[in-house]
Amino acid sequence: MSEQSPAVARYGHGSRIPGWDDSVDLGKDPAPVPDPATTPVPPQLREQIEAAMAKYPNFRSAAIPALHAAQDLHGWCSPEAIEQVACVMRLTPGYLTAVATFYDMFETEPVGRHRVYVCTNISCSLRGGPELLAAVQQAAGEDPDFNVRGFECLGACDIAPMASVNGEFVGPLELADAEQLVADLREGREVLPEKQLSRRACADPGAKAQAHE
Amino acid sequence: MPRPERRFVTFSIDGREVSAPEGVMLVDGAKYGDVEIPVFCYEPKLGAPVGACRMCLVEVEGIPKLQTACSTPVKDGMVVHTQTDRVREAQNSVIEFLLVNHPLDCPVCDKGGECPLQDITFGWGRGISRMVEPKRHFKKPLELSPLIAIDRERCILCYRCVRFSQEVSEDYQLVLNERGASTYVGTFDGHPYVAPFSGNIIELCPVGALTSRAYRFRARPWDIEGAGSVCTHCPAQCNVEFTVRDERVLRVLARDNEGVDDGWLCDKGRFAYQAIHSEERITEPLVRDSESGELVPATWEYALDVAAAALQAGGSKTAALAGGTTTNEEGFLLQRVVREALKSPHVDSRAGLPQVDLGLQQALAAPGLQATIPDLEFAHTVLVLGTDPIDDVASLDLRIRKGVRRNGVKLAVATSRPSALDPNAKLWLRYAPGGEHAFVAALEAAVTGSGDLSALCDAADADPKALEALAALLKDGGEDVVILWSQRLGAAPLPALLNVAAALRLEGRDGAGLIEVPVGGNGRGLREAGVQSNGGPGLSAPKAPGKPAREIAAALASGDLSTLWLLHADPVRDYADRRLWERAAANADALVAHATLLNDTLREHATVVFPAESYAEKEGTIVNLDGRVQRLRVAIGRPGAVRAEWQVIADLSKRLGLDLGVLTGPMATRQLVEAVPFYAGLTLKEIGGRGVRWQEREAASAAPAAPAGPVESGEPLPAPRPNGALRLGTYRPIWAAPEVEVSPALKFLAAKQQAELSPVDAERLGVDNGAKVSVTAGDATVLAKVFVRGNVPAGTVFLAEATAEQSATELLGEAPQLVSVEPYGQRPPVPLEGLARGARPSDDEVNS
Amino acid sequence: MSDKLLFDRIDEPGLDTIEVYMRRGGYESLKRALRMTPEEVLQNLLDSGLRGRGGAGFAMGKKVSFLPRGAMDKYLVCNADESEPGTFKDRELMQKSPHMLVEGMIIAAYAAGANRSFIYIRGEYELQAMKLEAAIHEAREAGFLGEDILGSGHSQTLVLHRGAGAYICGEETGLLDSLEGKRGNPRLKPPFPANQGLYQGPTLINNVETLATVPHIIKMGGTEYAKLGVDNSAGTKLISISGNVQRPGNYEIELGMKSRDIVYGLAGGPEPGREIKFWFPGGSSSPVLTPEDLELPYDFDSMAKAGSMLGSGAIIVVDDSNSVVDVALTLAKFYRHESCGKCTPCREGTNWTVKMLQRIHEGDATPMDLDIIASVQDQIMGNCLCVLGDAMAMPLSSMVAKFRGEFEQYIEEKRAAAGFGEMPEPSPIAIAGAA
Ligand SMILES: Cc1cc2nc3c(=O)[nH]c(=O)nc-3n(C[C@H](O)[C@H](O)[C@H](O)COP(=O)(O)O)c2cc1C
Ligand code: SF4
Ligand code: FES
């Protein structure tokens, strides 16, 4: 759901939004809750989903954890992945599609396995976030292993401009870091270790709270 | 659960004092002061308001922000303004926002002229748009299902359609995908939205985003008329409004009746009107030509003469069967002719199901023991026994779900086949097909604490623990218990059912009682009109008892009876034991039928076929499940040479020497009302557009009462044991009906035979989902596609009845039975000589 | 005692483990609270004057007191969605001192009579989720969670729930729907969560920082805590500063500190040679303030009086190298992307606003469009289901109002560059029907 075209084509017809122009396939059957007798689910996925369901007073709360688990297994929320979750949770695949497409972290199209979210929100954009995104996109090129996306504020503006690389926050990044970042991922190395947020101290030490008067 | 009481409060709106029921939303409360507040997303039928469209913003004194009138309940002393500058500004804004992306294609939009968006823009909009950016344009219209087209450009994201799918029909197939301005109405991975109630979203859509593919571009609001009537396609008898143009029904809309349908229609009710105008409709009398042996068109006079002669010849060896859209009046006149003119006692309307002792019938129909349909929504506990409403009485499925969802009704489902309501039930129980009697007897034992529960459960193949839980739920879950039970249970379990009702003290309790789901659209009315072998009008004892349908078939086949008269009935297709009925039809000396469509039986065996009225052409009354007498009204003229049924029956009667004294439809109604004591004094005017429950009228005191003590519930037979062979269970799918097959829009749904198997049995038989199997009983075989379902109990195979081909009725004899299921096509098939018409079905037929 | 509470020695190695946390006196407040009655704990919260740190600044004790008393399923939900652009304080706190939050939640749940609690953490915070999961596990092992905690009779479960990327799930009712496994659409209010929240039960929802402050209030006593800060803005506050400053980061300050001392003193001000053009005092949803406003004390009331708000305490500084139009467009795009789509003004208003700003950006706009932009913001404000719409409309209105000159100049320059020529006369387009 990331922003794609910056400019609105004035008289351009056709959809910029996946799904808008899609008709259903009348050759398909309707999609009710999948029958467990005919929907195989990988046992470890079933276990994860059932464990999640047990955590809440209402099993439906496990929808997001279950989709996370299915996405981890399948690489994206494929129709097959969604059917498996639906089967275990006794929900319709439609319900789960609606949920999956609402959230930015669920991929409903196949994507590369390296998740690189580059923040383009205000604080990062004030420090070159959009340029960084372009640089990473260029460095990754057409490599199908990469899923490089512009992302909204990731909550790490202290290291702007930053990116989340497979969940690891790195920053502040320079344009030159883009090549390194992609190379680290390709080689299976730790990504920009010295720029990882998890190793960073709080900015606070210089701060002095003033005495109350 | 007691229904909420209504108290009135006074509030002020636009300076006027208005009094409205407490707790209603301002939008509705305002109407009591003749103030209209515009809405898009608000639709109380869909449940709690969502407050999404923001069209209904109003000013409430004391609250700084504007409030949504759709979600603000009226309170005593509240001061509301709907006409201030602030409110107007907000209304203008919302409309401007809605039109930012709504195409102005009203001239070519099906909704034009009956579009809330048009009307509200006119009434509350600013009239200009400051938006100069391009609007969104997408491909349109797109298919959402074979029945519904979707035009996403026009969608204003009011949430109505998806709320219907999620919170009313609960099929959860139609959803909103993506978010924000990218949100769109869609389904999972391009699957069509096909569900029994899908068509309701067309009516709910306040813009032209969802349109009926069958109605698209057929008419404009200014050249159509609306005609209110009742749908006769199933016993739910939902109230409808036909959209009529040039004597054609072009559309069916719901006509909200809280006591009947709650404002919803199933897709059969909504789209099967197409059968009225189908090519196959019979529009002139047909008489079998003695030379060619073919049915050929004839004049009315000739056809009436031939039919009268045939009936005369049959005399007391004539049997008459009524069903389908037969009204009370037609049934009443029919039984008069058969009983009085032909001196034959053989009339029936029970679709081949066992005859029920008249005393028992009277007891079960005692007014004090009847629950109403709205009771299903407010009861403490509802037990659905032996029926899956979605197939047998469609719109009640929604009513039951609503009760569970909104009012916390505790639902129990006891059926042999897994039910669509299982997921909503607090408790669901299974028994073996053939174990109905034992099951209800076990329930009696569990509720009364007497009898051998474990032996009875064993006979029913039911779980005694579950039965105990059910009994506890019924006894301790609150006094208002409604039991919805099916005529298909047969006769044997009914004494036990009556005893259960007595033990739960349902008699005479408002909000509690029994509701029977009859087979056939007007099953209840026809019985009350006297169309049954052991019951005359008003459930009186007939002078002489006749044979029930099954015996009629045997007697026709053996020659003991000679003539068959069918009023909207198709026993070969609809009744059990198809092959017996085929022999009966073939063996009859004469067959006289009133029908709208031809079928093979008529084509091959009918002597005379009278063109019958469709339900849109009829006048007369029918009776709903809970005794609500409803009125069919003429919506369109009769096509071709079709005549009124009552008139045809009266004409025949005259030729048979009996003047019925009926010159108009209302005269027939008057005769019926006079003959049925508990209808006494009922007039068409009183019935009106909403119907009237006869139990609620004074004359109801003339109805027979329930017996005082427990009745003898008999010794149940055990259900057959699956011993390698499987038990056969059958059901009649909602889509197994000729009107579905001849309606172009619905054709794709026409039921095909499938064998529902448990995973265990499928594995044992070595068949996969979708494989072909043959199901054999004795020398009869049915071919079916395998449908493996996780919740089918092992040991049973379920087949559909009344499918056009390969119907389970081929296999149904008198008693519950075992069948052998074999993979088809791998091994040499079992001999098929026994098959009807001798032809072995081709692979295409099995697959189609 | 250090002058900091939440961030006191925050970088101490191992503080995320229960061992170090307890060595430093962790969970003592819990023990103390459990020796009090829930009413006494609540009284401390009321006395403390603690206002919610998540954005709305509602008095925490009061919110607890709104929950109905009596035995029923009640819930505590910690809002750890932290998606307000510019805000990253909860992240550091959860990562480095997760037990402080856990302890605060147990105390708050005790006061509210809630037995089931949840942390809804944004999906992107994977490291923080791991740390919290471990902390919850340790707390459970130590007997601080579970049945009959420390013999007090209070039982509590705590479940960590990861979101999946949606700003609207920070809005408390959107969060509840999301936590119930649905799309994160906000709900109509009333009913308020305190009466009908999670699973229809009474629910207390508080921000991470709010809850993490609770142990300190118990430790110090409510009235003592109330002495920190200024009138109506008691206590210390975590401030996230980002944008064009030399030392972006999180700082704990006492409320009422002069804004200039935060921006220049703590964060070092803009790069040398740059001037501050404007700043967001409380996240991207707060109306922007000008450099003159830096003289104001940083507290709830002062920010409100200046026409803005303290919000989540996230200061974003924009210097004069940036165009206000670019910031406005980035901002509007964010809200368009995050609008849940449920209500009309927000869904269509954000979308339309982006289109208009894009037209300005492309040189295809006239100053009249500024009036339309401003009017569209007015049309959004107050008319939406939740306040996400307002969260765009407020800062955008403030930008157009305060920097109209710059917008107009930008429009002229872009027009000239794009070759659109002379400005046409404005001509509203009439639509069918109405008048
Ligand atoms: C669009 C929107 C986003 C919000 N995001 C957050 C958030 O990320 N974190 C948070 O604590 N509060 C957020 N809030 C505020 C919450 O709705 C709620 O007021 C807060 O969690 C209450 O906690 P507090 O009283 O402790 O501040 C948001 C509000 C809105 C309208
Ligand atoms: S399709 Fe119609 S009913 Fe559905 S959301 Fe859109 S406007 Fe509403
Ligand atoms: S603006 Fe980039 S992390 Fe916040």
Automatic annotation (TrEMBL), chain A:
Disordered: region residues: 1-41
GO MF term list: 2 iron, 2 sulfur cluster binding; metal ion binding; NADH dehydrogenase activity
InterPro entries: NuoE_dom, NuoE_N, Thioredoxin-like_sf
Cofactors, names only: [2Fe-2S] cluster
Keywords from the UniProt entry: 2Fe-2S, Iron, Iron-sulfur, Metal-binding, Ubiquinone
Residue spans of biased composition, Pro residues class: 31-41
PANTHER family: NADH DEHYDROGENASE [UBIQUINONE] FLAVOPROTEIN 2, MITOCHONDRIAL (PTHR10371:SF3), NADH DEHYDROGENASE UBIQUINONE FLAVOPROTEIN 2, MITOCHONDRIAL (PTHR10371)
Family as reported in the entry's similarity comment: Belongs to the complex I 24 kDa subunit family.
Protein name in the entry: NADH:ubiquinone oxidoreductase subunit E
UniProtKB/TrEMBL annotation, chain B:
Keywords: 2Fe-2S, 4Fe-4S, Iron, Iron-sulfur, Membrane, Metal-binding, NAD, Quinone, Translocase
EC number in record: 7.1.1.-
SMART domains: Molybdop_Fe4S4, NADH-G_4Fe-4S_3
Amino acid composition bias (Low complexity), ranges on this chain: 700-716
PROSITE patterns, per the entry: 2FE2S_FER_2, 4FE4S_HC3, 4FE4S_MOW_BIS_MGD, COMPLEX1_75K_2, COMPLEX1_75K_3
Record family assignment: Belongs to the complex I 75 kDa subunit family.
Lineage summary: Bacteria, Bacillati, Actinomycetota, Thermoleophilia, Solirubrobacterales
Location of the 2Fe-2S ferredoxin-type domain: 7-86
Record's cofactor remark: Binds 1 [2Fe-2S] cluster per subunit.
Localization, UniProt: Membrane
Protein name: NADH-quinone oxidoreductase
Location of the 4Fe-4S Mo/W bis-MGD-type domain: 224-280
Source organism per UniProt: Conexibacter arvalis
Reactions this protein catalyses: a quinone + NADH + 5 H(+)(in) = a quinol + NAD(+) + 4 H(+)(out)
BP-aspect Gene Ontology terms: ATP synthesis coupled electron transport
Cofactor(s) named in the record: [4Fe-4S] cluster; [2Fe-2S] cluster
Domain 4Fe-4S His(Cys)3-ligated-type: 86-125
GO molecular function: 2 iron, 2 sulfur cluster binding; 4 iron, 4 sulfur cluster binding; metal ion binding; molybdopterin cofactor binding; NADH dehydrogenase (ubiquinone) activity; NADH dehydrogenase activity; quinone binding
Stretches the record annotates as Disordered: 698-722, 816-848
Pfam hit, one: Molybdop_Fe4S4
Class of this enzyme: translocase
GO CC annotation: membrane
TrEMBL record, chain C:
Enzyme Commission code(s) on record: 7.1.1.-
InterPro entries cross-referenced by the UniProt entry: NADH-UbQ_OxRdtase_51kDa_CS, NADH-UbQ_OxRdtase_suF, Nuo51_FMN-bd, Nuo51_FMN-bd_sf, Nuop51_4Fe4S-bd, Nuop51_4Fe4S-bd_sf
A Gene Ontology molecular function term of the record: metal ion binding
Cofactor: FMN; [4Fe-4S] cluster
Keyword NADP (UniProt): no
Cited PROSITE patterns: COMPLEX1_51K_2
Reactions accelerated catalytically: a quinone + NADH + 5 H(+)(in) = a quinol + NAD(+) + 4 H(+)(out)
Superkingdom assignment: Bacteria
Domain NADH-ubiquinone oxidoreductase 51kDa subunit iron-sulphur binding: 325-370
Keyword terms of this UniProt record: 4Fe-4S, Flavoprotein, FMN, Iron, Iron-sulfur, Metal-binding, NAD, Quinone, Translocase
NCBIfam families noted in UniProt: nuoF_fam (TIGR01959), PRK13596.1 (NF010120)
Function: NDH-1 shuttles electrons from NADH, via FMN and iron-sulfur (Fe-S) centers, to quinones in the respiratory chain.
Family of this protein: Belongs to the complex I 51 kDa subunit family.
Protein name as catalogued: NADH-quinone oxidoreductase subunit F
Organism: Conexibacter arvalis
Lineage, opening ranks: Bacteria, Bacillati, Actinomycetota, Thermoleophilia, Solirubrobacterales
